[in-house]
Amino acid sequence: MPKYGDKTQKELENYLIGYSMPTGKTRTGLAAPYHDFRRNHRDMENLELMEGDKFFHCKANYEAASRGAYGALAAGALSVGREISDALIKRDNFSLDLV
Questions:
Q1: Contacts of 41 (CB under 8 A, 6+ apart)
Q2: Residue 35: other Cβ atoms inside 10 A
């Protein structure tokens, strides 16, 4: 589990106070999980918490997978895409954990 700095931890805790799953026009299908990932990425940028990338990615996965079979499928595909892009762009180690 990543260790966050005190400022990051406090910001993430404040962010989660009163958090509830977002609702909107798109609730099922393949577009909704993409919107979950984009919204979480925007939230991370707006809060200037780039070190919280794994937290927001995990949260987006949860939200997307909660949308049913298509959501879980899309969440898995987006996660694999993220791992591959991190490996290629950021030179991170590639680890594909299929559980």
A1: 56, 60
A2: 17
Amino acid letter, 45 = E
Q: What is the pLDDT of residues 48-60, one digit of tens each?
A: 888 888 888 889 9
pLDDT band of 32, cuts 50, 70, 90: confident
Domain of residue 98, CATH code: 1.10.132.110
| Domains identified in the chain, total number | 1
The two three-digit tokens of residue 84, written as one number? 């591959």
Rounded to two decimals, the pTM is 0.70
Handedness of CA 55, 84, 50, 30 (dihedral sign): negative
Q: Domain for residue 48, yes or no?
A: yes
Q: 66 is in which domain, residue-wise?
A: 26-99
DSSP 8-state class, residue 82 = H
Examine residue 4 and state whether it is found in any structural domain, yes or no: no
